[in-house]
């Protein structure tokens, strides 16, 4: 059975370079990349941000940590990033980010997550991405 991908379109109050930096620089990613309802502590992020490079992400929760890993598949500076995504709910799924600048301080990001193994995994990832992107928007507003 082929599942519908998770697709989330969101407008951010920044240029697309700021979005690209938020996804490519571990020091920035650590400050917004978590899916909890309230922030516990910064995530731990390590990456080799090159095509074929690996990343490791750990979101720290009150009860447990959540680990994700993957490999960068495509990087088009300030426009597109794609990477594999492995977590307890999905192995080698694929995430693609497309960044479009709408005006100097307004950009659209389209996140597409495919190859998820079940409807349960799809639902969990959709909710997690929504919360992470809310955190990203808050980070951008607080750090213009």
What is the topological layout?
Blueprint lengths: L5 E7 L3 H9 L1 H7 L11 E4 L6 E7 L4 E12 L3 E8 L2 E14 L2 E9 L4 H24 L2
Antiparallel strand pairs: 1-7, 2-3, 3-4, 4-5, 5-6, 6-7
Q: What's the CATH superfamily, by name?
A: START domain
Total domains, how many? 1
- DSSP strand (E) fraction? 35-45%
| General shape | globular
Distance between the termini: 43 Å
What does this molecule look like?
- This protein has helices at 16-24, 26-32, 119-142, and strands at 6-12, 44-47, 54-60, 65-76, 80-87, 90-103, 106-114.
- It has 144 residues and is α+β, with helices and mostly antiparallel strands.
- The chain has one domain (6-142): Alpha-D-Glucose-1,6-Bisphosphate, Chain A, domain 4, CATH 3.30.530.20.
- It has a seven-stranded antiparallel beta sheet.
- Helix 1 crosses helix 2 (26-32).
- The protein starts with 5 loop residues before the first strand and ends with a helix.
What labels describe this entry?
single chain; 144 residues; alpha+beta; Alpha-D-Glucose-1,6-Bisphosphate, Chain A, domain 4; 7-stranded antiparallel sheet; 7 strands; 28% helix; 42% strand
């Amino acid at each position: 059975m082929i599942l519908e991908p998770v697709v989330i379109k969101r407008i951010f109050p920044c240029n697309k370079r700021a979005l690209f930096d938020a996804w490519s620089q571990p020091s920035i990613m650590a400050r917004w990349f978590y899916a909890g309802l309230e922030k516990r502590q910064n995530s731990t992020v390590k990456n080799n941000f090159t095509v074929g490079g690996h990343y490791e992400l750990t979101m720290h929760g009150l009860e447990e940590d959540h680990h994700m890993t993957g490999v960068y598949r495509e990087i088009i500076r300030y426009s597109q990033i794609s990477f594999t995504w492995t977590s307890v709910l999905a192995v080698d799924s694929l995430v693609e980010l497309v960044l479009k600048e709408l005006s100097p301080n307004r950009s659209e990001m389209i996140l597409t997550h495919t190859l998820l193994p079940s409807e349960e995994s799809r639902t969990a990832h959709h909710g997690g991405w929504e919360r992470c992107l809310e955190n990203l928007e808050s980070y951008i507003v607080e750090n213009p």
